[in-house]
Amino acid sequence: MPKFDFSTLNYHYSQKKAFWVELIGSPSMFSLESRIFHSICIGMIVLASLYVPYDISAGLYIAAISTFLIGLFFLHQYYYSRFRGKTHSCTLFGLIGLLLLSVNYFANSGIVGSTDLIWPAYLLLIFTISPYQQHLKWLVIYL
Predict the structure, then answer these.
(1) What pTM does this model have?
(2) Three-state SS sequence of the chain
(3) How far is C-alpha 43 from the chain's CA centre?
(4) Which of 5, 19, 54, 125 has its CA 20 to 30 A from that of 107?
(5) Separation between Cα atoms, residue 60 and residue 69, nearest integer Å
(6) Residue 7 pLDDT > 80, yes or no?
(7) Is the model's pLDDT at 9 over the cut of 60?
(8) Higher confidence at residue 56 or residue 5?
(9) What is the distance between the alpha carbons of residues 33 and 36, in angstroms, rounded to a whole number?
(10) With 0-12 CB in 10 A as exposed, 13-18 as middle and 19+ as buried, what is 33?
(11) Which residues are within 8 A (CB) of 24 and not within 5 positions of it... i.e. 6 or more apart?
């Protein structure tokens, strides 16, 4: 029975891991909260870049604009946090999300649309990047 050479898999895995560490920052330079924030921003930028063309093709122009704006906001926050070394603003992150999700809620069918499912997910993201002392405040604001 032939043996499988795992060295090529290890090489590709280590390259992907190095690339991801380059994107989110090394543990020696960034706190865990900052690296989580960078990961969230990367995910949201990718999602926004996929949803904008979909919203336009579906005729949801207000949703496309709000998705584009929130994608730009995440790109801005990621850039300044990751490359400029400025700490992310949990308050700005939460309030921008609240504003854009509110507009999206009323523009996209209200309770029948998908925005009511996105609100709790966004609140969870806020919980992951904000200090523990602010969690009750964010929960009350989002409810």
Answers:
(1) 0.69
(2) CCCCCCHHHHHHHHHHHHHHHHHHCCCCCCCHHHHHHHHHHHHHHHHHHHHHHHHHHCCCHHHHHHHHHHHHHHHHHHHHHHCCCCCCCHHHHHHHHHHHHHHHHHHCCHHHCCHHHHHHHHHHHHHHHCCHHHHHHHHHHHC
(3) 5
(4) 125
(5) 14
(6) no
(7) no
(8) 56
(9) 5
(10) middle
(11) 30, 35, 38, 39, 42, 82
For 88-105, b/e burial (b = at least 16 CB within 10 A) is bebeebbebbbebbebbb
In tens, the pLDDT along 34-92 reads 888 888 888 888 988 988 898 888 887 887 888 898 889 889 888 988 888 787 778 88
- What is the pLDDT at residue 4? 58
CA geometry: angle at 112 spanning 102 and 123, to 5°?
40
At 40, which amino acid appears?
I
* pLDDT score of 126 more than 70: yes
Residue listed under structure tokens 């994107």: 23
